[in-house]
Design goal:
This protein has about 280 residues and is an alpha/beta fold. It has helices spanning about 60-70, 90-95, 115-120, 135-145, 160-175, 190-210, 220-225, 245, 250-255; strands at about 20-35, 35-45, 50-55, 80, 85, 100, 180-185, 210-215, 230-235, 235-240, 260-265, 270-275.
């Protein structure tokens, strides 16, 4: 089942128009780990300012797709273009100044403070043997203000809660001054308070700074509430690509997730609510 992205339908939350320049483009991309093909014939066009949610069952290829977008995995050909240029032609430092990657979990073998973790985001801008400048420190301080993490800047990163760590990682991404933020399950293992807190920070960065957001997500209700656009994967293929209303349809969800659902509209903001039916 396919549902190509509508050319005229309005996206939620004031998403970019179709005329907005393309940042990332996938042309017939397929990707394998050894002999295991994970993604198949992916065609995708990410525009500046979008908030894209990548959804689908476990093992559908969400994390792999996000990593390919950030150049963390390399395709076997020139099927991924960043700013109309083969993404593999960029150096790691060049990509790090444009694309920030925020993993689901981060552990460090050393006792870095929260502030030191944020400052690591400035490394793509530091030349060899150069210490951080006053400007670098000011940028980090501002990022911690934006993410409400200033109060624990001197605490060890390893001792922070899951929600606090995630906000520190977002602050570290902010100081990269990226065009795109890629996040792999940013709300996984967080309680409801921190889920909303993290997503509201990302929403503000998208609206106020124009940072393009791509999130791999499991929670369909949060995806429907926050994302402009959803890309639904199943077994490594794009099943549907469009607005939450386009993608989160009863027949599509039941086919992909193999479960009966009821879909309602939130009385608060009109976003879609998906409820699985028990037998």
């Amino acid at each position: 089942m396919t549902n190509p992205q509508p050319e005229t339908s309005a996206r939620a939350n004031k998403a970019p128009e179709e005329t907005t320049p393309s940042l990332l483009k996938f042309n017939e991309l397929s990707f394998s780990y050894a002999d295991d093909e994970v993604l198949r014939q992916i065609n995708l066009n990410l525009r500046a300012g979008e908030w894209m949610g990548v959804i689908g069952p476990n093992g559908s290829g969400k994390s792999t797709l996000i990593k390919l977008m950030g150049g963390l995995l390399k395709s076997s050909d020139d099927s991924i273009l960043f700013r109309a240029k083969d993404i593999q032609s960029y150096s790691r430092a060049e990509l790090a100044r444009e694309i920030a990657w925020i993993p689901q979990e981060t552990s460090t073998p050393f006792s870095f403070s929260a502030y030191e973790m944020v400052m690591m985001g400035r490394h793509p801008y530091l030349k060899a043997f150069r210490f951080e400048s006053g400007e670098d420190h000011a940028i980090c301080d501002r990022a911690m203000e934006i993410t409400s993490t200033t109060e624990f800047k001197t605490r060890k990163f390893s001792e922070l809660s899951g929600g606090e760590k995630q906000r520190i990682l977002i602050a570290s991404a902010i100081v990269q001054s990226p065009e795109i933020m890629l996040l792999d399950e940013p709300t996984a293992s967080l309680d409801l308070k921190y889920q909303i807190q993290v997503l509201d920070i990302l929403k503000s960065l998208n609206r106020e700074r124009g940072i393009t957001m791509v999130l791999a997500m499991h929670d369909l209700n949060l995806a429907a509430k926050y994302c402009h656009r959803l890309v639904l994967l199943k077994e490594g293929r794009i099943v549907c690509d469009g607005t939450p209303a386009d993608v989160l349809q009863k027949d599509i969800i039941e086919d992909v997730y193999e479960v009966k659902v009821q879909i309602l509209k939130s009385p608060m903001d009109g976003s879609l609510l998906i409820f699985p039916e028990s037998e």
